[in-house]
C-alpha cells in the first residue's frame, strides 16, 4: 500500500489517469498527522505550490523529510529557490518550463504541462473560437503587443519598441493604455461568444458556449484579425529558467508568426518541448543575449526588420512552422502525458524498488 499525502484536489483524478492503482494499492490522505502515522516505507507526498511563502516551505520540509518520494508541482514557475533548497534524492519537481542551469544534483526535474492542457482542452471543446480568425493579408497593423501587468521587462518594451503601427495595451502603467481606453476601432471584447458579464481583469473566468475558461486563455480574435504578428511578453524574464504560459500558446493556436520577450533561451527551450520557431525568417539571436536591455534592443530590431517585409511573403515562408506548432499543440494529450509520467515515477521509485519492512 502506498499512502499519499496531497494538498491538490486534482491528484485523485491524475492518479486515476496514470493507472498506478492497477499496479499498486493507493490511499490518498489529506490529514498530515494521519499520513505521518503511516509506515515510513510507504509514505508518498504530492504537493502543489503556487505561493512560495515561508509557511508553505515549512510544510514542504516536513514532506521531504518524511516521504519516501516527495513530488513538488510548480505550475506557476515564479521562482526557482525551492529547486535548490529541496535538492534531495527523494524529490521530484514538475515545473511549467525549464531550468537553464544544471538541474539539481540529487532531485529530478520534469515537465508540468498545466498551461498546455488547460488552454488546448478548451479549444478542443469550443473549436468555433478559432474559426473566427481572419487570415487574410495584409493586416492594417503590424504587431499586437498585449503587455499585461506592469513589470520591468514590459517597461523596457514600452520604452524601446516602435508602437506606432501596432495595437498595444499595458495595464497600470503611466502613459500606457488600459482596456477601457483602447482604440475601439481595433479592439472589442468578443461579445458574440462571451456571456454578458462585467470583465475587470484578464484572468477573470468567463463562459464561452457553455464552457468555462479564463479570459487570459481566450485567443483575442478581434485583435488578431487586425494585426499581422504577435509580440509575446511572457510572465517572467529570468535567465535562470523559462516559464511557459498561455501567452505563448495563443499565437501558436492562431497560427501566427511571433517574437518573444522573456528570459534568455526561452525560444530554445520552447523548441525542446517539440515546437518550432522562426529563425531564418526572423533574426532570433536576441534569444541568446544575457543582458535584458540589450536583449530587448535586439528584439526591437528584429521586429522592425519583420515589419518592413511583405506580410504575405512572411506567412508563405512560415507556413510549415505554423502548421507544425498548431498540430503539435492540438495532437498532444498534455494532461495524460504528465499523469503517465507521475505514475511511472511512483512505480519506479516506490513499487519496483519496494522496501520490505523489518519485522
Notes on the protein architecture:
This protein has 359 residues and is α/β, with parallel strands linked by helices. The chain has two domains: 111 residues; 215 residues, no CATH class. 36% of the residues lie in helices and 18% in strands. The strands form four sheets. A six-stranded parallel beta sheet has the order 2-1-3-4-5-7, sandwiched between helices. A four-stranded parallel beta sheet has the order 9-8-12-14, sandwiched between helices. The chain has a two-stranded antiparallel sheet with strand order 6-13. Strand 1, helix 1 and strand 2 form a beta-alpha-beta unit. The C terminus is likely disordered.
Question: Which features would summarize this protein structure in a list?
Answer:
2 domains, 18% strand, alpha/beta, six-stranded parallel beta sheet, 14 strands, 359 residues, elongated, disordered C terminus
What order do the strands of the largest sheet run in, or round the barrel if closed?
Answer: 2-1-3-4-5-7
> What structural category arises from helix and sheet content?
alpha/beta
Q: Largest sheet, described in full?
A: 6 strands, parallel
Radius of gyration: 22 Å
